[in-house]
Design a protein that fits this description.
One of its GO terms (cellular component) is membrane. This is Protein kinase domain-containing protein. It is found in: Membrane. The chain has 629 residues and is α/β, with parallel strands linked by helices. 32% of the residues lie in helices and 15% in strands. Among the domains are: 114 residues, Phosphorylase Kinase, domain 1; 195 residues, Transferase(Phosphotransferase) domain 1 (Transferase(Phosphotransferase), domain 1), CATH 1.10.510.10. The strands form four sheets. It has a seven-stranded mixed beta sheet with strand order 1-2-4-6-8-10-12, with helices on one face. Strands 3-5-7-9-11-13-14 form a seven-stranded parallel beta sheet, with no helix packed on it. A six-stranded antiparallel beta sheet has the order 15-19-20-18-17-16.
Length: 629
């Protein structure tokens, strides 16, 4: 009996042992498979990051790939369940690297556990990557200060979003109403884009930071509790009305009262139908007269061109400010050279004859020539610079234009074509609709003018620094850096003009109009070098900060020395008066960043060239400041 009981006990023990062993094996297998799966996911994250780096980091600024573990890479943060010790990439932060190009599909979208993406203050372009919707756990999206374009994404893919900043890009189209589904959203910044349409009717209780300023939005601001929380600074620079903005009644053209003596009762004059008919007839007659005049005018131009005369209203140079001025005086050219020379890679659909008969408007006079806005028959608008004091022979001129046209960068104004004859030299470039930085800073400052905000100014400063840095990397000296040569696009991105042109001018003393930007060691334009460019750029930074013109000449011929004035003002205990009143008025909270930028500018205008930084050092320091705005 006891023997049978012992046998049963041993059998039960073995069965229990076998069961425990079986369970242990199953659990071990599951853990092994789970860890293997997690490892595969982390490898997928690494592959996506490396593919992203390959596409946008041609300068190899990101130190990724030095380790097989992406969690150890700069700007990458990983998290995962502590029990399993499995990690996934949850944050990607690479602000101000800079990165260039578009974000390709199949890269960042592989990071399915991503929570934070911060690529601000770079040079990323192209459309928003549509497959980023795969990152459904995304909470923070910081893509401001780039060049992303196209429509905004459909935000419904990220229900957990808390922070969104897509400001200072080139996004267009309408603001999606799916934003209203983001119930956890705390900040939403879409300012300084090209968004159109009306504001969506949304009401997010959690939102406490919001701006759509400086877009192309129109219509009334919806009267919701969310929109009422924000003042007019969040909506300015659009065609919006209502709430904290002007009344929509004042803005509507439908409220204009028509005098009763024009449209009155049918007993006291003509009926509405009769008046409409008369007006239509008058318009038709006027249009016929206009077409006849244009036909006769074009016919006369054609005859003049065939006889070798230019299409102008007189011979000789034009007077400044004439809206119908011409940059084409009587040109005596050999037929062999009577043509525009278009530069490599530029598509064109006009010739010299069309350029010469285009209506021209004087844009400004500079140290190396006068610039004009030319509207061609095709509707294309270009800028034409009529060069002066050019003594270079044809072959040297052509070789130089060919060389500098190959220097291409998004912050350099591209050359389209040139014309060379013994009497005239013309250079054709793209036309920038917002004019120059000089005009924006010192132009009309009436009650309706919009001052340049602090973040716009530092953005322009960095764009310009990137362009000059690129020139120096390609052994090209600008030699004539000033605010009138910094042109501004519709999206307030800057492009540098006149680069490389000083090598063509005669070695004459520096003109008075650019003395304010001239480094002390430069006696004529041809003596300029990289350190002289840095000095001129430093004066430009001071101009952005102070709002003062460095070239404001006094009656006795002496110029206003902006660096010396700043140095004197720095010795005063109260330094607030150094900065532009418009900056202090609207951006008082950025005083610390302004002081940092002021110190950078002062280092650039050091009297000794050896004490001045390089443009790369300047640009990197400015990007650090911008990253904290």
């Amino acid at each position: 009996m006891n023997s049978r009981r012992d046998s049963l006990t041993r059998t039960t023990s073995l069965t229990t042992l076998d069961m425990d062993l079986f369970l242990f094996c199953v659990v071990s297998l599951l853990v092994f498979l789970l860890l293997g799966h997690c490892s595969a996911d982390l490898n997928q994250d690494a592959s996506g990051l490396l593919a992203f780096k390959k596409s946008v980091d041609a300068n190899d600024r990101l130190d990724w790939g030095s380790s097989s573990n992406p969690c150890e890479w700069e700007g990458i943060k990983c998290e995962g369940p502590p029990l399993l010790k499995s990690l996934r990439v949850v944050e990607v932060r690479t602000p101000g690297t800079p990165l260039y190009g578009s974000i390709p599909s199949g890269t960042l979208s592989l990071l399915s556990e991503l929570r934070v993406i911060s690529l601000r203050a770079n040079h990323l372009s192209g459309r928003f990557p549509s497959d980023l919707s795969n990152c459904s756990f995304l909470r923070s999206m910081y893509l401001q200060y780039n060049y992303l374009s196209g429509p905004l994404p459909d935000f419904s893919s990220w229900p957990n979003l808390v922070h969104v900043d897509l400001s200072f890009n080139n996004f267009s189209g309408s603001i999606p109403s799916t934003l209203g589904n983001l119930t956890r959203l705390v900040t939403l910044y879409l300012k300084n884009n090209s968004l159109t349409g009306s504001l969506p009717l949304i009401n997010i209780d959690s939102l406490n930071g919001f701006s759509v300023a400086n877009n192309d939005l129109e219509g009334p601001v919806p009267d919701t509790q969310m929109y009422r929380r924000f003042n007019e600074d969040s909506f300015v620079g659009n065609g919006l009305c209502g709430l904290s903005l002007q009344s929509c009644d004042k803005k509507s053209p439908g409220n204009v009262q028509v005098p009763q003596n024009i449209v009155g009762s049918h007993h006291r004059g003509l009926s509405k139908g009769a008046i409409v008919g008369i007006i239509a007839a008058l318009i038709a007659v006027c249009l016929c007269l206009v077409f006849l005049c244009l036909f006769a005018f074009r016919k006369g131009i054609s005859k003049d061109n065939k006889s070798g005369k230019p299409a102008s209203n007189g011979a000789g140079p034009v007077a400044h400010g004439d809206p119908r001025a011409t940059y084409a005086p009587a040109l005596e050219m050999n037929s062999e050279y009577k043509k525009l020379v278009f530069l490599d890679g530029v598509e064109h659909s006009f010739d010299l004859e069309e350029l010469l008969r285009a209506s021209a408007e004087v844009l400004g006079k500079g140290s190396i020539g006068t610039s004009y806005k030319a509207a061609l028959d095709s509707g294309l608008i270009v800028a034409v610079k009529r060069l002066r004091d050019i003594t270079t022979e044809r072959r040297e001129f052509e070789a130089h234009m060919s060389n500098i046209s190959r220097i291409k960068h998004e912050h350099l104004l591209p050359f389209i074509a040139y014309f060379y004859s013994r009497e005239e030299k013309l250079v054709v470039t793209e036309y920038m609709p917002n004019g120059s930085l000089s005009t924006l800073l010192h132009g009309n400052k009436g009650t309706n003018s919009t001052p340049l905000a602090w973040d716009t100014r530092i953005n322009i400063a960095i764009d310009t620094a990137l362009g000059i840095e690129f020139l120096h990397e390609h052994m090209c000296i600008h030699g004539n850096i000033k605010s009138s040569n910094i042109l501004i696009s519709r999206s307030y991105s800057s492009r540098i003009s006149d680069y490389g042109m000083v090598e063509l001018v005669s070695a004459s003393p520096v003109p008075n109009r650019i003395l304010g930007y001239r480094a002390p060691e430069v006696l004529n334009l041809k003596m300029a070098n990289e350190k002289a460019d840095v000095y001129s750029y430093g004066v430009l930074l001071l101009e952005l900060l102070t709002g003062k013109e460095p070239v404001n000449m006094k009656k006795n011929g002496e110029g206003f020395d902006l660096p010396r004035w700043v140095q004197s003002a720095m010795e005063d205990e109260s330094r607030a008066h150094i900065f532009d009143e418009e900056l202090i008025k609207y951006n008082n909270s950025a005083h610390a960043e302004m002081m940092q930028m002021l110190e950078i500018a002062r280092s650039c205008v050091a009297p000794s060239p050896d004490q001045r930084p390089t443009m790369r050092q300047v640009r990197e320091r400015l990007q650090v400041i911008r990253a904290f705005i």
